[in-house]
Amino acid sequence: MGKLRSKDGCLTCRRRHVKCDQAKPVCGQCQKRNRPCRREEPSGIKIKSYRLPQAARAPSGTATPDGQATDVQEQPSLQARPPIVLRAETINAGTAASAGESFSGGEGCLPFHNEQGSVSSPYASRHTPLTSEHNAVVPPYLPSSGAPLITPPINTASPYYSVASIPISQLLQPESPNHWPIASPEATVTAPLTYKEACLVHHFATQLGRWLDCTDASRQFTRKIPALVKTSPILLHAVISYAARHVGDADVAEQAHERCVELLIPSLSSETVADDDVLLCAIVILRVFEQLNVMVTGSDQERHLAGCSALLRASQGREVDPSTPGLRQAAFWVYMRQCLYNACVYQQPPNVDPNLVLLPPPSGGDPISDPKSETAWANTMTWICATVVHFCFGSNYPEPLARMHKWRELYDAVESWRKNRPDTFDPIWYSDPVPGNSNPFPEIWFTADWHVMAFGFYHLACMLLIIYKPSPRFAVRGAHGALRETDVQVMKHARAICGACNSCPSVVPSLITLCHSTFIWGPLMTDQAEREGVIKLLRDMEQVHAWPTTWIINSLEEEWSMT
Question: Residue 107: in which H helix or E strand, if any?
């Protein structure tokens, strides 16, 4: 991480983001894994270093995301029609996955280590070699004025936050499209599943679909995706890449991902791409693979997050249905949670239009027998939390009176949800921690995943509103002394999130909420037993569920060592 990319390395290693030893005719990496060692053919064309226009040039001393000058080479287009593009004016800047049973990560699920042997943040060195055919470049990402309690080591450019006029297909292209074969029509014919493919699809259906359905009582990803993979090779390879990465089969995961992108790129040229629900679901699933793959690559490129954003913006109306009547709506809410993850880590507004109109949850009826009602109430809290995050980390309300008015509006929305939600969202058991017990957090039990998720988003929204309530304050915190009253209130909400996660370990997305919320409250935790409890939750998550948390643990321990 952080080193210049080899100019003589093979294309195969470059696409896989691994170091190439440049041996010829076959490099060591390709020989070890029995891969074709592809290399660029000399074209006789001199490629000049591309310089940003003066208006878009980074501040003096700022390096490009990959640490070197950006080379621009004209490449043949894969599109048969004008591509869907992300426009700067439609992006506000600004993710989490969902829930599953315990499953061993396997040998392939190891944290990324740099050459010094320490585990680095996956967000510390993100490779972003993106330029559009209109020479639109990705500018360096600039943080907002809000000062985070914990800051990722380096806040570099991200295609998710700052992409401008980039076709979706280019977001997903490998580094050398000339050597990436376009899928033939015959490649879209689905053959019967092999035994290994069937095992991985079964693992998705029984374990991983639950991650994506954590706020959907109708379980659409779990029920529908395993059936749809039989008719969609793109979806099949997306599912296989996700499932294989989760069980630690790195080779199968990578091969499936490469094949999926190979099929996906020409599909994005279709005139109906914006209305293709299966394609949208595949990209949402690829985003979870991308997050899990941080354990191997050591970086999060967020390309699939940007692609999902482009598809949604191209097809979405002005209303959002929280009851998720179809797969497209279910995919939107997965994307929403994925946005929340990155928004909290970076403390930037999520890449979701806050002006969309959320339809109200259905009133009356029996929520126990109506999964749409349960889903709507869970997703409504997700939406409220996203609007709170947008308010806290955004800059839409610089004027004090307007900001206070918006804060009150959000506070009322959070309290209204708490008062009007169905009784099914209440925990069936709550008990405070017992002094001297091995569990330092309250015991909180729920009956459904979406109840746990709504509980977590509620407490995350509450703590953010406490921290970011417009009021006079000192610019710098005191270095020593007892916690302020507001800090004590924040920690009550943090302990509630920790307690729900500890009591419901099979609801993996609630643990993901814990991961990104630590960047809000982590420095305020002073009790040693609670600190050890949080570290145990995070460490178990990586070991059991293959979600990268070592870099978060390192950030917390570094922060705590200074207090």
Answer: none
Mean pLDDT (whole number) for 526-554:
95
Residue 464, H or E segment: helix 449-467
Tell me if 110 is assigned to some domain.
no
Q: Is residue 94 part of a domain?
A: no
Q: Tell me, yes or no, whether 222 lies in a domain.
A: yes
Answer whether 110's CB lies under 8 Å from 295's CB: yes
**DSSP codes joined into one string, 172-214:** H--S-GGGSPPPPGGGGSPPPPPHHHHHHHHHIIIIIHHHHTT
Residue bearing tokens 């696409």 = 15
**34, 49, 86, 129 from 138: Cα distances, Å:** 35, 16, 12, 8
> Which alpha helices (H) appear in 123-276, and where do they start and end?
159-162, 168-172, 195-203, 209-212, 220-228, 233-247, 250-267
Rounded to 10 degrees, the C-alpha dihedral 317/320/321/327 comes to 70
Q: Residue 72 above 50 pLDDT?
A: no
Least confident of 72-76, 244-248, 467-471: 72-76
Q: Which two tokens stand for residue 135?
A: 């020479």
In a domain, 325, yes or no: yes
% the chain with pLDDT above 70: 69
- Asked whether the predicted pLDDT for residue 79 surpasses 70, the reply is no
Residue the block writes with tokens 């609801």:
507
* CATH assignment of the domain containing 31: 4.10.240.10
Confidence check: pLDDT of 372 > 50: yes
Domain residue limits at 205: 185-471+483-561
Whether 268 and 30 have beta carbons less than 8 Å apart is answered as no
Closest by CA to 218, choosing from 369, 371, 330, is: 371
Total number of domains constituting the chain: 2
